[in-house]
Amino acid sequence: MEQVINNNFKTQFIYFKPCYMKFFLFILLAFIFSNANSQTIFLAQGRVEYEKKVNQYKMIEDEDDEDKSWIEEIKKTMPRFVTDIYELHFTATKSAYKMKAENTENKYMWGSKPSETDITVQDFASNKLSIQRDVFEQTYLVNDSIRKFEWKITGEVREIAGFECKKAVTKICDSVYVVAFYTDQIMVSSGPESFGGLPGLILGLAVPRLATTWFATKVETVTPTAKQISPLQKGKKVDWKKLNMDMHKATKDWGKYGAKNIWKFSL
Fold first, then answer.
1. Which fold has domain 46-265?
2. Quick check: 121 and 131 in contact, CB under 8 A?
3. Most buried of the four, 37, 142, 157, 259, by CB within 10 Å?
């Protein structure tokens, strides 16, 4: 009797073996894909490259001058767009943003050339913001709390650098709109310049009144070095309030051009 039961069991096992194999294969593939997605969702350190693009014509076309012939002359010698590459190194507790390298082929209009030495560091653990920023002829070192933006998240979604990003909007300087696209697949509340405060990393940014955009072109899973994530910074130490006072004082007679500079240095 025992021999018969064993033979029957073997027969049943052989009969169902293909089904078991398919089932186990399905579970294995589901685990692999689930694990890959988890690694993406919880990406907490790495490096992002952003292409910063400025429409130089737009920055001068809305000037109040009745005689705009000078604008047309400038257009003959200057390109409409200039682009530069920036990079953001980040961990779960800190981020550092700076220009990767100057684009030597760019031809900048007066006052529009970016600084190679500007560095923005956000320390999430201590809630501290540190910005080295060249403002006209002075290098400032802004030490303050990480900025708080009143973001409004919309329902719009787009893909940037292979990541699904959600749209959010806010304002700086009371009236200057900022549009951001962030991904919650990278759980780091940072982005270009000093922006952050969203439930994920900002991969796309636009400031229409400055005719400027930042869009990620590459996201790498790498571990930043100590120098990359904590770069040396220097300059005249101020907080945001003092920097704004100095900028308003320096540009009070500059009209629209002065306002645009204040917006630019407030990013």
1. outer membrane lipoprotein receptor (LolB), chain A (2.50.20)
2. yes
3. 142
> SS3 of 185, please?
coil
- Give one DSSP letter per residue of 24-86, joined into a string: HHHHHHHHHHHHHHHHHHTB-SEEEEEEEEEEHHHHHHT---S--HHHHHHHHHS-SEEEEEE
Give the residue from 147, 47, 39, 50 showing the smallest Cα distance to 91: 47
Rg (CA), the chain: 26
Kindly tell me the burial class for residue 26, based on how many C-beta atoms sit within 10 Å of its own C-beta (0-12, 13-18, 19 or more): exposed
* 113-168 per-position pLDDT tens digit: 888 999 999 999 999 999 999 988 899 999 999 999 999 999 899 999 999 999 99
Nearest to 124 by CA among 45, 207, 220: 45
Tokens of 3: 């021999």
The residue extents of the domains of the chain are 1-41, 46-265
Question: pTM of the entire structure?
Answer: 0.81
